[in-house]
Amino acid sequence: MQFKSEKAIYIQITEFVMEKILKGEWSADQKIPSVRDLGGELEVNPNTAMRAYDILQQQDIIYNKRGLGFFVSKDAKKSITSVKKKQFIDVDLPQFFNTIELLGISIEEINSYYQKQK
């Protein structure tokens, strides 16, 4: 995984885990890599991976079975979609609208590009 400098690594790890779940690579009640294994796979300190897992637990995306490890929560996809949608609407969309206004791009142009991507 290539980390970007503009975001904390543990935040990027939470996004990595969320993407795995949204893509169906990790499903509900499936055991996920241990903190140590994830840290090794991503070449980060296990404490950094644990920080990401702590955040994901607080958001009810994963849960810990003591002695067994971490698992994907039953409603993980729903929780992730809610979190990601809120972030997109609150942060990304306003930046997007600002950029298209500055560049003089019309909604019709955007729609045309969108239709080509489908």
TrEMBL record:
Q: Does the keyword tRNA processing apply?
A: no
Annotated Gene Ontology MF terms? DNA binding; DNA-binding transcription factor activity
Gene3D superfamilies documented for this protein: 1.10.287.100, Winged helix-like DNA-binding domain superfamily/Winged helix DNA-binding domain
Q: Which residues cross the membrane?
A: none
Sorted alphabetically, which keywords does the UniProt record give? Answer: DNA-binding, Transcription, Transcription regulation
Keyword DNA-binding annotated: yes
Domain (HTH gntR-type): residue spans on this chain:
7-75
Q: Which InterPro entries match?
A: Tscrpt_reg_HTH_GntR, WH-like_DNA-bd_sf, WH_DNA-bd_sf
Which Pfam families does the entry mention?
A: GntR
The family database entries (PANTHER family) matched by this protein are listed as: GNTR-FAMILY TRANSCRIPTIONAL REGULATOR, HTH-TYPE TRANSCRIPTIONAL REPRESSOR YTRA
Task: Specify the protein name.
Answer: GntR family transcriptional regulator
Q: What is the lineage of its organism?
A: Bacteria, Pseudomonadati, Bacteroidota, Sphingobacteriia, Sphingobacteriales
